[in-house]
Specification:
The complex is a heterodimer of chains A (394) and B (506).
Chain A (H helix, E strand, L loop, with lengths): L1 H12 L1 H20 L7 H26 L7 H17 L5 H25 L4 H19 L6 E2 L3 H8 L16 H27 L7 H23 L6 H19 L1 H11 L1 H6 L4 H27 L1 E2 L7 H11 L11 H21 L3 H25 L2
Chain B lengths: L3 E12 L2 E12 L3 E5 L6 H9 L8 E6 L2 E3 L4 H6 L2 E4 L11 H5 L6 E2 L2 E2 L1 H14 L15 H13 L5 E5 L7 H16 L3 E5 L3 H7 L2 E6 L2 E7 L7 H9 L18 E12 L4 E12 L3 E5 L6 H8 L7 E8 L2 E3 L4 H6 L2 E4 L3 H4 L7 H6 L7 E2 L2 E2 L1 H14 L16 H13 L5 E5 L7 H16 L3 E5 L3 H7 L2 E6 L2 E7 L5 H8 L2
Parallel strand pairs in B: 3-10, 3-11, 6-9, 9-10, 15-22, 15-23, 18-21, 21-22
Antiparallel strand pairs in B: 1-2, 1-4, 4-5, 7-8, 11-12, 13-14, 13-16, 16-17, 19-20, 23-24
Helix pairs in contact in B: 4-5
The chains are: A mainly alpha (394), B alpha/beta (506).
């Protein structure tokens, strides 16, 4: 039967891309069983997403940094420091919340450009340059909080970023327990996805390119729709989509589009694959290095905002070890340490895997010491999977 | 003929999907220089890897009889112990270590765990004298040229009492002097009883040095020729290598050069801060529309430096002089400017700085001109596939699909991808740096045909090449470079190998 062989072929060809999603699915299913469904409860999933947010945005930026064969160790304390700056701007300088956010994002970009200057212009290895950043921003964070200690943020709008949810449509009385706007957005996403998929299939057919056979195509549509649908349903069962989720989704979609569809994205991967060849192809390695570190800085700022908002305060230890969580998420998500390979979507899933493990094991009451060891094993297993599928594939 | 020191019988080695060696037999007499020739992919290197134990016993079928006994090497260490040493194209020295450290790396002279440095340095000196290399053993290998590094490799082999020395394309990176030097040394070693197997692409040098030649084609032994019987001739070698007579490996073309000058350089000088020396001095040349201009010269004569200095100067030379494109004065500070002004460059080393090996064929082809297939910075993937397929057909790139990663292609097809990439920027002047290095005769012919087609359409080609027959066979005009200066310009009618060599060594 050709359907089964088609399915096998498509799965085999795309095992690397689907591998992460399958792993995430297995982990979630496992914890759902071991916690009697507590793990998959709307409330827990909602929390899990909010906890992933500040690591996920870092992991997205880190993906690009690692793809162009660099690393950024400074992002954790940079996030912590800029979170503190945001708090100070609102509490002491009395800046309006959006002005403070804008200011911090600009600071983030500038910090990233400073790193890029050291790396691209002064030719300092990124590991060293950003290790200096790690020390420097840690000092800056302590300095910013030295007189006050923890700065409590009273601004409700700001705190909603890490704790709030999108409002519901008022005045509808059907399905009282369900968040209607979330549901609506979910359905809209499914509709857009289906229309897009059909359009792109038509275009490919117009060019006479190979497309999935019709039956597989329909299954793919149903499968993805089911996943979006069930996530929507779970989230709508609690308080709906959180602002954090909205931000992370927006960042991931923008970066996913940028890396896959734009000239800039192609240049980034070309540099990762072979910087000399890229330069001789007319790509400015320097310029792209500035762009990538600049974006990393901006996302660090965003991470700092998400974290400060979630804690509703800026603390003296904010950002500790974020950088390593982000790097681990990127590697779990299939980014190659040798550069040139890796997808932002993968890193997002990598971040979700990490937080799912923490959340699931917490619910099961597993000791923190064991949690670290399990996470270590998962990191190694993910990279082994990645390396072996890469060498056996084409 | 002396007794064979080595006999490989019915060797078959398979890789997933390919039979790299099919029932190959290979016999080397003691004390001879035996050349192994064949097109790329004929199985030469694989055969030597079987011999040296890189592919251990059990991974191939057949027998290796060496020194009268059947050998079962399970790794390089075993074959080294038996007195077989192999020197690869890419040298295996540690650049940051000194010459003497490199020579005894892996078999250090020591009392227990403590290395006896004095004895090491003394013995290294003896080895260096044997290979007639006059350098201080305490020099770092990094500071030596390629030719000298090669001699260090041979010294390293000699220090292990080598009986059978295998050299895999030792001259591909050497200039004429270093080559002669190396061959003198090999003859010397022969007289001292060292047997030598030489893998080479350069038929001239095979003819000059070989006692006998074995030709491989498609993983099979075609024949073994004996020099004493006068069997080793260029036609015989080529016929056996390609399986057909190639009358003229340079396809004919109607020469139609117009007088319009597309590219001109005046008083062009360059200093390289990285190398700390002047690489170009007072260079003047011009390229007319529809012309193939050959640039000859020895390694290090500044040919690649000249090309790069024009192509946006990526190595950051300090440049002086004037550059004109279609009569307009230009200054390029990045390859991008050069590309936008209709100049394209195909690098000498396609793997190192030409291609992105981990990306697929289509991504490599479109890389330098993504704007062409983009709308507002968004790449149109479907248009990309169309473009790539067009080049796949027109340049006859042999790949199962344009989604194949370039790393999996053969050298000739990688070169075609490299050329396709440069053509996609729609250049007026195409600079080809060693366009046929390391590719087989069939693929060379195809590259030449493509070049002819391009100039017939009005493109100009600057061809840098170390192979004089190629320069003479393809160019309309030849410039000769030596030590960063142009030492001569010859119209093709007047150019001969002797004249060019004379000017190149000037």
């Amino acid at each position: 039967m050709s359907f089964v062989t088609d399915l096998q072929r498509v799965l085999r060809q795309n095992i690397r891309e689907y591998g992460m999603f399958i792993a995430l699915f297995v982990i979630m299913a496992y914890f759902t069983v071991t916690t009697d469904g507590l793990f998959i409860s709307s409330r827990n999933i909602s929390n899990l997403i909010n906890q992933t947010g500040y690591i996920a945005v870092l992991a997205v930026g880190m993906t690009l940094v690692i793809v162009i064969r660099h690393i950024d160790l400074s992002v954790g304390f940079l996030a912590g420091f800029l979170g503190a700056v945001a708090a100070i701007a609102m509490v002491f300088w009395k800046l309006p919340v959006f002005a403070a956010i804008g200011l911090v994002l600009v600071f983030g970009i500038l910090s990233g450009l400073l790193t890029a200057f050291l790396v691209a212009q002064m030719k300092i290895p990124a590991f060293v340059a950003t290790l200096a950043g790690w020390l420097g921003y840690r000092g800056a964070l302590l300095l910013a909080t030295v007189s006050t200690g923890t700065i409590i943020i009273p601004d409700a709008t700001f705190n909603a970023i890490g704790n709030g949810f999108i409002p519901d449509i008022p005045g509808i009385n059907i399905l009282p327990e369900i968040h209607k706007l979330t549901l609506l957005l979910g359905l809209l996403t499914i509709a857009i996805f289906i229309v897009n998929a059909i359009n792109s299939r038509r275009k490919k057919q117009a060019y006479n390119f190979e497309v999935l056979p019709m039956n597989l195509f329909i299954i793919q549509l149903l499968f993805v729709s089911a996943i979006i649908g069930s996530i929507t349903w779970v989230l709508a069962g609690y308080r709906g989509l959180s602002w954090t989720a909205v931000i992370v989704l927006a960042v991931t979609l923008v970066y996913d589009f940028m890396t896959n569809q734009t000239v800039l994205g192609r240049h980034i991967y070309a540099i990762g694959g072979n910087p000399e060849a890229a330069e001789l192809s007319g790509i400015s390695v320097k310029k792209i290095t500035y762009v990538v570190f600049g974006s990393m800085g901006m996302l660090s700022a965003l991470s700092g905002i998400l974290f400060a908002s979630r804690l509703q305060s800026a603390t003296t230890t904010a950002g500790t070890l974020f950088e390593l969580d982000a790097i681990a998420a990127a590697f779990i998500g299939g980014v190659s340490p040798a550069g040139g390979v890796g997808k932002v979507m993968g890193s997002l899933v990598g971040a979700l895997v990490m937080t799912s493990l923490t959340s699931g094991m917490n619910l099961m009451g597993i000791d923190i010491s064991l949690q670290y060891i399990v996470r270590a094993a998962v990191l190694v297993a993910a990279v082994i999977f990645d390396v072996t599928t890469r060498s056996s594939g084409k | 003929m002396a007794a064979p020191i080595l006999e490989m019988r019915n060797i078959t080695k398979e890789f997933p999907g390919v039979k790299a060696l099919n029932n190959v037999s290979f016999q080397v007499a003691e004390g001879e220089i035996h050349c192994l020739v064949g097109e790329n992919g004929a199985g030469k290197s694989t055969l030597m890897k079987v011999l040296s134990g890189v592919y251990p016993y059990g991974e191939y079928s057949g027998d290796i009889v060496y020194g009268g006994e059947v050998q079962r090497f399970s790794g390089i260490r075993d074959s080294e112990k038996a007195g077989i040493a192999i020197i690869y194209q890419e040298l295996a020295l540690v650049p940051e270590m000194t010459v003497f450290e490199n020579i005894f790396l892996g078999h250090e002279i020591s009392n227990g765990p403590i290395i006896d440095w004095n004895e090491t340095i003394k013995r290294a000196g003896e080895m260096l004298r044997k290979v007639r290399l006059n350098v201080n053993p305490e020099t770092k290998v990094r500071e030596l040229g390629v030719g000298k590094q090669q001699l260090v490799e041979i010294a390293k082999a000699l220090s292990r009492d080598v009986k059978l020395l295998i050299l895999d394309e030792p001259t591909s990176a050497l200039n004429e002097d270093d080559c002669d030097n190396l061959f003198d040394l090999l003859r010397d070693l022969k007289n001292n009883g060292v047997t030598c197997v030489l893998i080479s692409h350069k038929l001239k040098e095979v003819i000059s040095i070989a006692d006998s030649v074995t030709v491989l084609r498609d993983g099979q032994t075609i024949c073994t020729l004996d020099a004493k019987k006068g069997e080793v001739t260029e036609t015989a070698l080529i016929r056996n290598m390609v399986g057909r007579e190639i009358e003229n490996i340079y396809p004919k073309r109607v020469r139609r050069t117009s007088d319009e000058v597309l590219l001109e350089v005046r008083n062009w000088s360059g200093y390289s801060p990285a190398l700390g020396r002047t690489v170009l001095q007072g260079v003047n040349f011009h390229v007319k529309k529809g012309e193939i201009v050959g640039f000859a010269g020895l390694m290090g004569s500044g040919r690649t430096e000249l090309a790069l200095s024009i192509f946006g100067n990526p190595d950051g030379y300090k440049l002086n002089g004037e550059l004109f494109v279609r009569g307009e004065r230009k200054q390029f500070n990045h390859p991008q400017n050069a590309i936008r002004n209709g100049i394209a460059y195909v690098t000498e080393d396609r793997k190192r700085d030409g291609l992105i090996l981990i990306q697929d064929v289509k991504q490599n082809i479109t890389l330098a001109n993504l704007r062409e297939i983009s709308k507002r910075f968004v790449v149109n993937g479907n248009a990309e596939v169309t473009v790539a397929n067009e080049y796949k057909t027109s340049l006859n790139i042999k790949t199962p699909s344009i989604e194949q990663k370039v790393v999996n292609l053969s050298g000739g097809n990688q070169q075609k991808v490299s050329v396709a990439k440069s053509l996609f920027v729609n250049p007026n002047v195409l600079i080809l740096d060693e366009p046929t290095r390391g590719i087989d005769v069939g693929a060379k012919f195809e590259i030449y045909t493509i070049m002819n087609r391009l100039v017939e359409r009005g493109m100009s080609i600057v061809m840098i090449s170390s192979e004089l027959p190629e320069i003479l066979g393809m160019s309309d005009r030849v410039y000769i470079l030596s030590s960063g200066r142009i030492t001569g310009e010859l119209p093709i009618e007047e150019a001969t190998q002797e004249k060019i060599m004379h000017l190149a060594t000037n």
